[in-house]
Amino acid sequence: MNIRTIIVDDERLARNELCFQLERLDDVKIIGQAGDGVQAIKLIEDLSPNLVFLDVQMPGPTGFEVAREILAHGSHSQVVFVTAYDQYAIEAFEVNAIDYLLKPVEPKRLEQTIQRARDRLESSRAPTIAATSLNDGELARIVEYIAQQEIRREPLAVKVGERFLLTQTEDIIYASLADAAITIVTGTLTGISNYRTLDELQSHLDPALFWRVHRSHVVNINKIKEIMPWFNRNYMLKMKDTKGTEIPVSRAQTKRLREHLSL
Q: Which of 109, 140, 173, 183 has a C-alpha 20 to 30 A away from that of 193?
């Protein structure tokens, strides 16, 4: 049985990334996407999906308002809230969402959510959206997951000359490894990271935004200015820093980039 799924998020890149992960699962079929609450309500009414991934904050009705609206129309669609903000976790479970995912959505965490959806569909107990209380096990799971995400929200220290300057991770344009040092570039500074490997640095970055496009380079996909064809059907990325730095994309990541941006 296919899990007929709709994705609702006002950010196209966020929808594309979630689609990319879901399409790897054999029994998940994406039947529609919406960019705001009004579109979402109409799409859910027209297509009657089994599962809806709802962003919380978006133009028009919020994710919670969409959930309550489809309840009023008797929908039995299961709801998963997806957001960058953890303060909505309790409210999500109070409208009986089957899960609450924090961006960036990790593949293993997403698989757990899909398994919950499978279990409810197979047992014919897919719930309607109604008031419920949050049990201790669900609360513990939310708290643990939020704690794992907090590290990615901390500012990053970058050494510039003899000083350490703090920068928000989302301001990073790219990071490159050369001569055993990691150079970090933002729109306003260039400096050296105190992390010794790109793996260590990546563990503190949002994987939905920062891609290891090459063994020596991590880029913020929101800071790419231009994608240029390169030899062997690969790509070169021109970044949005003041120098317009060009960064090569490996063969494996070229395929992912094509899929992500529909190139």
A: 109
Q: 0.85 cut: is pTM over it?
A: no
Contact 208, 18 (CB under 8 A): no
Could you give phi then psi for residue 174, rounded to 5 degrees? -160, 165
pLDDT digits (tens, 9 = 90+) for 12-21: 888 999 999 9
What are the strands, taking DSSP E only, across the chain? Answer: 3-8, 28-34, 51-55, 78-83, 99-102, 156-160, 163-167, 172-178, 181-186, 190-193, 210-214, 217-220, 224-229, 235-239, 246-248
Rounded Cα gap, residues 226 and 240, in angstroms: 9
Task: Map out the domains of the chain as residue ranges.
Answer: 3-151, 154-261
CATH topology of domain 3-151: Rossmann fold (3.40.50)
Residue 106 in this model has a pLDDT that exceeds 60:
yes
Mean pLDDT of 184-190: 95
CATH of domain 154-261: 2.40.50.1020
Whether the Cβ atoms of residue 205 and residue 169 lie closer than 8 Å to each other:
yes
Dump the DSSP string for 203-216.
TTS-TTTEEEEETT
Identify the three-state secondary structure at position 192. strand
Say if CB 62 and CB 40 are below 8 A apart: no
Cα gap 10→40, rounded to integer Å: 10
Q: Which tens digits make up the pLDDT trace of 55-96?
A: 988 888 888 888 888 777 777 788 898 887 665 555 555 556
